[in-house]
Amino acid sequence: MRLPVPKRLRDLSLRHKILLANFLMVLVPVLLIAVLGTLLLAGLRFTGTLRQAELALLWPERGPAMAVSYAVSSSSTRRAAA
């Protein structure tokens, strides 16, 4: 049983069909990963598992400096323990 193909797609040249297929092979996985990442982060935020408040108490800087200071202190702690 063959699925019906719209006439516009059937009339495309082979070059355009291959270009469309390549574009979709890149676009679909990127969109899936973006949607899954967004859902995961939203789920963590809404369930309270994303602990930004605790990190803000430990490192009182605001904005992106907090993430940098957290990464630096974490790596220096690992180096000191080794």
How would you describe this structure to a colleague?
This protein is mostly helical. Helix content is 77%, strand content 0%. It contains four helices and no strands. It has helices at 7-10, 14-47, 52-58, 64-81. The protein is elongated and about 65 Å long. The model has no long low-confidence stretch (mean pLDDT 75).
SSE topology sketch:
Elements: H1 7-10, H2 14-47, H3 52-58, H4 64-81
Brief write-up:
By secondary structure, the protein is an all-alpha fold. The chain contains 4 helices and no strands.
Name its key features.
4 helices; mainly alpha
Number of strands: 0
- Helical percentage: over 70%
Beta fraction = under 5%
- Number of helix segments? 4
Beginning-to-end CA distance, first to last residue: 64 Å
Biggest sheet descriptor: none
How much is the average pLDDT? 75
Helix and strand pattern: HHHH
Report the C-alpha radius of gyration, rounded.
Answer: 24 Å
Q: Rough shape?
A: elongated
The secondary-structure class comes to mainly alpha
Low-confidence stretches: none
